[in-house]
Amino acid sequence: MAVRQPVLDESAVRDQGGRVDLVVVAEMVAPGSRVLDVGSGDGALLELLATTRNCDARGIELSREGVNAGVARGLAIIQGDADVDLAHYPDDAFDYVILSQTLQATRRPRWVLEQMLRIGRRAVVSFPNFGHWRSRLDLMINGRMPVTDNMPIAWYETPNIHFCTIRDFVALVEVLDARIEKAVALDSSGHRVRVNMPWWVWNLLGEQAVFLLTRER
């Protein structure tokens, strides 16, 4: 008898104060896929992929604390630096390579995305949108770097070094000669922004975004 996989419940995650973007990312991954999660933290996404998508999922994480937490949960996580270690993986080693809320903390975001599209048939990227209206308002009225739920650490302590907007990311995808298969923007409440709106509207209303990419062949 087949074991029934738990259902991805976006509303429940939102109500519990969890990261809705992880549910959106998991939805973009086909069941049974081989997945590498870059910047996997404590393994929350890996666990979600294993339990709801039956994926062969493993992670690479810079912090020793994150690695220890993930391994303690029985997950396959190794310590590594995305800005260096992705070069060691062979072409097409995974079906999906994921970078969740980590792009802005990399030193070489373009290189990291290039490597993701090389070693994975598809790449899934989520990131906070610095072009969101609240961030713009903070800069305009207060003249200070914004602190939000998705960017909660002051500028002098944050690990984030390459903030970008949704429009910036779309422009980078064009530079990489990659293709956007799917994209989702989430507002400040974790609800999806209507998909039929143009990029500039998403850039204004989306507090974070999730993109599914594939390289042009």
Automatic annotation (TrEMBL):
Entries under InterPro entries matching the protein: Methionine_synth_MetW, SAM-dependent_MTases_sf
Quote the NCBIfam families the UniProt record gives: metW
Name the record gives this protein: Methionine biosynthesis protein MetW
Originating organism: Xanthobacter aminoxidans
Name the encoding gene, please: metW
